[in-house]
Each structure stands twice: as C-alpha cells, then as structure tokens.
Amino acid sequence: DTGRYDSCRNCQDPNHTSQTCENECKLCRINDDGHMRKDCAKVKCFKCKNMGHISENCTFKNKCYTCGAEGHTQDECSGRKDTKNIICYNCSELGHFSRDCPNKSGGLLVSN
C-alpha cells in the first residue's frame, strides 16, 4: 500500500505531505539560510493565527470563555459561569442557559 498523499504544500511533490517534507522552504521565496517550512518566519499557525511557527509547535494555551481559565476550551469546562444575568434563548427568563431550560417545549414549533 503506497498510501495517498495530496501534493506537498512546500515542494509540490505528490509522494509526501508538507509535514514530512525534507526539502527547503519554498514559502518565503528567499530562503537564503536553507530553513525548512516548519521553521519559516512566514508560516502561519492555524491554532493561534500568529506567524513564525506551525500549530504542532504552538505554545498558545486555550482559554475557556466560560470560566476564563487557560488550558481547556468552553466545551471541556467543568465549571459554570455565573448565570444570574444570563437570558435563556428558549423561555427568555433570567438565570439559565437554553440547554438547561426547565421550560423546554420539546423543540416543536406550531404555527397557524
């Protein structure tokens, strides 16, 4: 099994990906120092959106929008934000999110 690769984004070789490319960087078109793409100052990280490194080497810590702590995302959060000023999208009452709404209608909308 030879496996299937899309062409390498660095050198366009169809036999490997940019993650395993051992050819010099062609992203910056200057490359007078012979650096690799993963070390290129013009490469953009998909995780933090900063220049100069790839996401595999990113040191950015995720920040949770629920509790404000670093190291996990909102989906992974075990803590709850203070909900006293939260307005429920389902019933418009204060104090809870729609996913926790005690007035759920079962998701059925009836119109005349």
From TrEMBL:
Ranges for domain CCHC-type: 44-58, 63-77, 88-103
Keyword vocabulary terms for this entry: Metal-binding, Repeat, Zinc, Zinc-finger
PROSITE patterns: ZF_CCHC
SMART domains to which the protein is assigned, alphabetical: ZnF_C2HC
Superkingdom field: Eukaryota
A GO MF term: nucleic acid binding
PANTHER family, per database record: DNA-BINDING PROTEIN (PTHR47103)
Entry protein name: Gag-Pol polyprotein
Upper taxonomic lineage: Eukaryota, Metazoa, Ecdysozoa, Arthropoda, Crustacea
Gene name as annotated: gag-pol
